[in-house]
Amino acid sequence: MVAFIVRRVIAAVLMLVIVSVATFAIFFLIPRALGQTPEGMASRYVGRDATPEAIQGAVKRLHLDDPLIVQYGRFAKGIVAGQDYSLGPRKAECPAPCFGFSFNNNQPVWPTLLDRLPATISLAIGAAVIWVVAGVSIGVISALKRGSALDRAAMTVALAGVSLPIYFTGLVSLALFAYTLGIFPGGGSYTPITTNPVMWFQALVLPWITLAFLYAALYARLTRAGMLETMGEDYIRTARAKGLKERTVVTKHALRATLTPILTIFGLDLGLLLGGAVLTESTFSIPGIGKLVIDAIRGNDLPVVLGVTLFAAFFIVLANLIVDILYAVVDPRVRLS
Amino acid sequence: MRKTKALALAALGTALTMGLAACGGTAGGGGNNTGAGNTAGTGTSAAKHNDGYTKVVNPSDAKGGTLKFAYSDEPDSMDPGNTYYAFNWNFTRLYARPLLTYAAAPGEAGLKLVPDLAEGLGEASEDGLTWTYKIKKGIKYDDGTEVKAADVKYAIARSNFTEELTDGPKYFAEYLDAGDYKGPYKDKNLDNFKGVETPDDYTVVFKLKKPFSEFDFLVANPQSAPVPQAKDTGLEYEKTVASTGPYKIESYEVGKQFNLVKNENWDPATDTTRKQLPDRIEVQMKQSGEDIDQRLLAGQVHVDLGGTGVQPAARAKIVADPKLKDSTDNPYTPFNRYAMMSTKVAPFDNIDCRKAVQYATDQVATQAPWGGPLGGDIGSTLMTPTTVGYQQYDLFPNGADNKGDLAKAKEHLAACGQPNGFETNIAVRGDRVKEVQVAEALQASLDRVGIKATIKKYPSGDWSAQYAGKPDFVHQNKLGIMIAGWGADWPSGFGFLSQIVDGRFIKPSGNYNMMELNDPAVNDLLDKGIQTTDPAERNKIWAEVDKKVMESAAFLPFVYEKTLIFRPSSLTNVYVHPAYGMYDYTWLGVQQ
Q1: What ipTM does the predicted assembly reach?
Q2: Which PANTHER family does this UniProt record tie to the protein (chain B) (predicted)?
Q3: Rounded distance, CA B65 to CA B38, Å?
Q4: Shortest CA gap B25–chain A (Å)
């Protein structure tokens, strides 16, 4: 078991290195190959009408004229050993793991990521609780009441949930519940839980529901399909023949089997969301990882994009790792393979 | 040129005649709040559409409350010495006082320069090479220490002569006679900076390379706000700016939240242009643009910091509701939206081919992408109505309905030897939706007379450095027409014209004179104008330059851009400051 975990951890680290090289190449190598000059890149990070001297200054300050391998080496070294940046009259320390220094707002990337993480975790975990409870419950009920009006209504709502984009449901929910009825606060009202737990909760209710609506719909459909399949299995008939109560048959035998693939998907979904819920955070102006990366992309802030990509990749790799390990725990055959 | 909007003269013509002089703009307001209908989000029911353009709406001296701004992005910097964002030249005045500023008044009166940190306007030497400013005694920073002339000198040095502070303009570096000064981060001895002298603690003397009669405009930009050398932390100074204004920085989480609180060491007796009404000022950054509009309409936010107006969805809602429309103002931005024809790309090296395009253009169609009449007036000159010296004329009237004079266009096509039309390319920034739509409208217009134009899209990030601003690229790719826009940093003809029409500014890269027009008569007029000390004479010269360039037919104006800004009823002392083209942020208060 230990050897298996060690192997998987090494593979995960290798995966992160590959992701970092690939991401770096996408943002630095490809533009250079397409004719982008260091001056062209630097001109984005200086004021309008900048003189050639000012652009050259930015090229030097951001090390854009270094060979790409040197730039990548500096980036990788920064993650391991940290590095310093010039702020003018003094240097700024960017301790390890230094993911680089934002070209646009002159802040080190790593502390910025840590600053944005609580908002993303708050959003992702709250929404996850809602969508798992709601999605699985609706799926089970729909499966048990297959063909009923309740089943049809639930699946119609689920279809709508899967089909409607978050920027639509988010804006509609804000317009209705925040700006017309005044039940919830509007966009931009996110408050850290450590500052004011009540405001934190109030500000996140709409984003939670909006995000959970999409996922709950998906999970309801998956649960329903899984339950329908499981309920037709021989061992369910056997359980019933043994005289077990229907509730026991459903919860202890059918649902448990159905939940296994659902939990796998849940792990990946949660990992993905912890790397940033871009649409939800943008719609509700929540200062999380997703909002950070979309703003960085708009502003060509390459170090931030690179940092967030690695950060998100880390969570996805971590989720995969946990799922793999849990599989091994559940099914010893996985280790052998 | 500032990145979004820089300045705007309040109404000319009708708007001005509606009594801006009686606006009460410079007085302290009427004591109690006179606004009516204070329901948040419905706007000031007593006020009408564009009232904020000509007078102070909801005047009040009531103090207290929190003034809330929201912004869909983040500025380049909150450091007054390192910002080129137009709204920041307005906003930073809350905590930074430059030597001069613009009078606090709507309409033409607001374009007058008045002393701020200085005791009076600049005194130029006879040869025009030195400008002297005396600064007021007793002005203090928020920590209680007194402002000294050396702090102004240091502010100019750091903002214009360092590699790190790259975001602001570099006019002082261009005009000051500073030799090969390396900047204060490389050379700590400020005495080595010869471009500015401080003979005593209250006198600042600027030494110029050549006469520049509009120097007062330069020191009205926030870079002349004082910075104590000991407190400069370079790029991080934006979090701890030493305040001289009515507010000081409480906290700045970059890209998230910027908070100001009252500065107890600000003395209103030394300041004729600002108020100190709200207890706090909060700015939320990186907010969803559509959501900001909803919050404005619901009264949850007071001002969209960017000052660029509401988004299309909110605009449609406002236009459809007369009550909401009464709570809006529709000022000019400083921008002229236009196309330039390259005089070096055939067949536009022939003036008649250029004139054919002038007459063939359907200006109603090219106005539509900006939002129709609310988005801008159809243009016919280089300078916009908000530029001092602007004169209205139209050398190429294209029909009573502005949809083109096709007969005249064909006449000029024949005269340029292309009676059946010709092929050309229109270059446009592909990621700017409105500009692409303008290019498409222009393409359709020209097609009516046989000019077949192909639209070529380029990324805006490299537009100036690699594409339309690079003459070699323009020639090689036969870019005959380029869609562009321009706004001035200060409200004069020189501020608007010099970068885009002076033939000596044609650069191998980063070129804004995309016409490549190098007319010695135009260049000479620019030189003559900037050495003319009489403002009236100077303005005549700018108008002459404008006309000379239009005579070349290489400049094709589309619209003098306008914007639609919403004023919630909970906001007091609201007026559009003509120098910024948005509300005067230093005057605003909130109802309790």
Answers
A1: 0.80
A2: ABC TRANSPORTER SUBSTRATE-BINDING PROTEIN (PTHR30290:SF83), PERIPLASMIC BINDING COMPONENT OF ABC TRANSPORTER (PTHR30290)
A3: 15
A4: 33
